[in-house]
Design goal:
Strand 6 (about 215-220) and strand 7 form a beta hairpin. The radius of gyration is 25 Å and the shape is globular. With about 700 residues, it is mainly beta.
């Protein structure tokens, strides 16, 4: 049965490619190659959080920019801040340039903006569009015909079978299925629908009474009247500096480097396939002069680890944690699926003046069961109960080349958290930043996502300093130092601890055909060490040093070569160092007048164990961002083909394989694969009308 499914998968791909072949003569070029900024952000997300949901959130952020690009001639400061590769001063420079010289006639004109390099202009051009300044109010028929429609179909399946499929543990097939429809009429109206089946989930998903395990939909309107924005369906929120309400994607230290400020978009489209980090209900923003009021409501069931259940009333009494993987293939996953109802209500008010902005955010959320975490010493301050309330104040001040920002928040248990920072650009070639943060151990907020080491802004204190220097026209040096402490215990850390992180990156772009960068990072953290004969555990310092070298060579429009070298050293104060190395060589070939692009990679890795693992960015089909981890000894090979026969049609296919030299099986338990090879096949079809 499995081989028949895989055969059908291959036949579908072959038929699609055959249908593309007759129209290869009149295509548009493919220019969807991810840039180094995008790559760094993807790698940083995965390295820091190591969670599927954060990688999905990043993919959703990029997908939203692809499907709903910024209208460069109409966008205000808030809209331009969606372009995460721009820092605060580049956004202001773009606005000043447009005010002085008028509307942009081409995205390539961005290279003339002060502070924009040719490479940065190329990066930004993939996420912006040039459209007329004025639009007539259309009829429903005109809006449908003149709007932008995008349909994406994606299939992915491993070619080796895991143990969980052979013994019937997983309820469905290993095929991953993704379908998405997005509609946009300039920036005034948009709508979308997403359906996804994860590997192992049944299809149709009878436990949910629906076709797939996960479905999502929304409609959104943006106007210039009193009702500035309204969303019905699924959405995300981002206010302040992330202490009160932020369940959208947020950049970290490695991606933003210097400009670490949270850029609040307010009410956002939900564009990710991550199945938990979104709201379902309605949200709107009202504008009165220089003041905006946003209100939101959400009610939806969430996954939880149920510990007490009343079978008579069919109601959850207690649960120990929320589950965020989104997988519902195994019996336990299906049983805990959407087991607890969550209700969220809140508001934000923001007043903007010429150089100062102040806002306040309030949120209250509740569950129909009692959240009672398992008793552990490090969970002493963890939230327990049925409801929680969080409120806070945020501020921003900008005067010339100086930018100040911060936020203060408090929960219903009187625990407080705050952060503050500044950005300074004293010279066109110099940019500096610094920030302080203090998050109390008892500060518990499910929707907090501030800057820092911890994921939800709790039990942390720290100071951050960053600096960027353009030494010569083509040489840029960036770096930061972050020193932090955790006043209370953490998972696998049985005492208050501290640590630090340092990073230095040198980039050299001597000409259009050549660019390279060298990045050093050092991280030091305390964790539990080896227990003594009395069972007492002392903290050990875990040190990680990484070097990443990136070289891109573009000898012609048809050929591009990229080299990535990774090296890492991991050790504690009572163990020998572990050395990890990886070398990856990419070849990109644009042929048939840039209507077809072939990307190939060959990589070698030698990594002692999971503890010293390395992450490497991989090219994939558009709007998919792959950053797998590697440990062991072996090779990684993939080939990716993208075909764009006409403007409205694009197809992509990827075959990737990993071979290990020191393993006879891959994985363990239900994920175990017999043998030393793992191969994955993926296909995507995108229609844009």
């Amino acid at each position: 049965m499995y081989s028949i499914r895989l055969l059908c998968f291959r036949i579908c791909v072959a038929i699609s490619l055959w249908l593309l072949s007759p129209v290869m003569g009149s295509s548009q070029e493919i220019n969807d190659v991810p840039d180094e900024t995008t790559e760094n952000a993807a790698v940083e997300s995965t390295e820091r959080w190591e969670e599927f949901e954060e990688n999905e959130a990043f993919a959703g952020k990029l997908a939203d920019l692809r499907l709903h690009p910024v209208r460069i001639n109409q966008a205000d400061k808030e809209e331009l801040e969606r372009l995460f590769m721009l820092n605060e001063f580049q956004v202001l420079a773009l606005l000043d340039y447009r005010k002085t010289y008028g509307s942009f006639s081409s995205p390539y004109e961005l290279a003339n903006v002060p502070g924009f390099s040719t490479d940065l202009a190329r990066q930004v051009s993939g996420f912006v569009i040039i459209e007329p300044d004025k639009w007539d109010v259309p009829s429903v028929k005109e809006a449908f015909m003149q709007g932008k429609h995008t349909l994406i179909l994606r299939l992915q399946e491993p070619m080796q079978k895991q143990a969980g499929y052979r013994d019937g543990y997983y309820q469905g097939s290993p095929l991953k299925f993704y379908l998405r429809y997005a509609y946009r009429y300039n920036t005034s109206f948009s709508a979308g629908y997403t359906m996804e089946k994860d590997p192992g989930e049944p299809f149709p998903y009878f436990p949910a009474g629906s076709l797939a395990d996960f479905t999502s939909a929304y409609i959104r309107t943006d106007q210039n009247g009193i009702l500035r924005r309204f969303v019905a369906g699924d959405y995300q929120l981002a206010f302040g500096q992330g202490l009160v309400m932020w369940n959208s994607y947020a950049t970290g230290k490695g991606s933003g480097l210097i400009d670490f400020r949270r850029r609040a978009e307010g009410i956002c489209r939900f564009s990710s396939a991550e199945e938990n980090r979104f709201f379902r209900g309605a949200a709107g923003t009202l504008g009165l002069g220089n003041t905006q009021f946003s209100f939101f409501f959400s009610s939806k069931p969430v996954d939880a680890n149920v510990t007490r259940f009343d079978s008579y009333s069919n109601q959850v009494l207690e649960f120990s944690s929320l589950l965020t993987t989104g997988y519902h293939a195994a019996p336990d996953e299906i049983r805990n699926r959407k087991s607890v109802d969550q209700t969220v209500i809140g508001m934000n008010a923001t007043a903007a003046f010429s150089d100062f902005r102040i806002g306040t955010t309030w949120v209250h959320y509740s569950f129909d069961g009692f959240w009672r975490p398992y008793p552990e010493p490090y969970r002493l301050y963890v939230f327990r109960g049925r409801e929680n309330t969080v409120g806070g104040i945020d501020w921003q001040f900008q005067r010339g080349d100086f930018f100040l920002f911060g936020e203060w928040a408090m929960t219903s248990n009187k625990a407080a958290a705050w952060n503050a920072g500044f950005l300074l650009k004293p010279d066109p070639a110099v940019m500096a930043s610094a920030g302080l943060r203090k998050y109390a151990p008892a500060f518990n907020n499910l929707f907090a996502r501030p800057f820092g080491e911890t994921y939800n802004g709790s039990n942390e204190e720290g100071i951050y300093c960053g600096l960027e220097l353009q030494i010569f026209r083509n040489i840029t040096v960036k770096g930061y130092i972050d020193v932090f402490a955790f006043p209370w215990l953490k998972y696998e850390v049985d005492a208050p601890s501290e640590g630090s992180e340092k990073m230095l990156q040198v980039s050299w772009n001597p000409e259009k055909m050549l660019s390279m960068s060298l990045r050093f990072s050092v991280e030091s953290k305390e964790k539990n060490g080896i227990s003594d004969k009395n069972g007492l555990t002392a903290l050990s310092t875990y040190n990680t040093r990484n070097v990443r070298y990136y070289l891109e060579l573009n000898p012609s429009e048809e050929w591009s070569f990229r080299t990535r070298m990774y090296a890492g050293m991991f050790h504690t104060n009572n163990s020998n160092a572990k050395i990890s190395t990886m070398l990856a060589e990419d070849v990109l070939w644009n042929l048939t007048g840039r209507k077809v692009r072939i990307t190939m990679r060959y990589a070698l890795f030698d990594i002692p164990d999971y503890e010293s693992r390395l992450y490497a960015y991989e090219n994939d089909v558009p709007m998919v961002y792959s950053v797998p981890s590697f440990y062991g000894k072996g090779t990684r090979i993939y080939i990716l083909g993208l075909f764009r026969p006409v403007r409205w049609l694009e197809a992509g296919i990827k075959i990737a394989g990993t071979s290990f030299l020191n393993r006879y099986e891959i994985g363990s338990g239900e994920t175990r694969i017999g043998g030393n090879r793992k191969t994955d096949l993926g296909f995507q079809l995108r229609l844009s009308l």
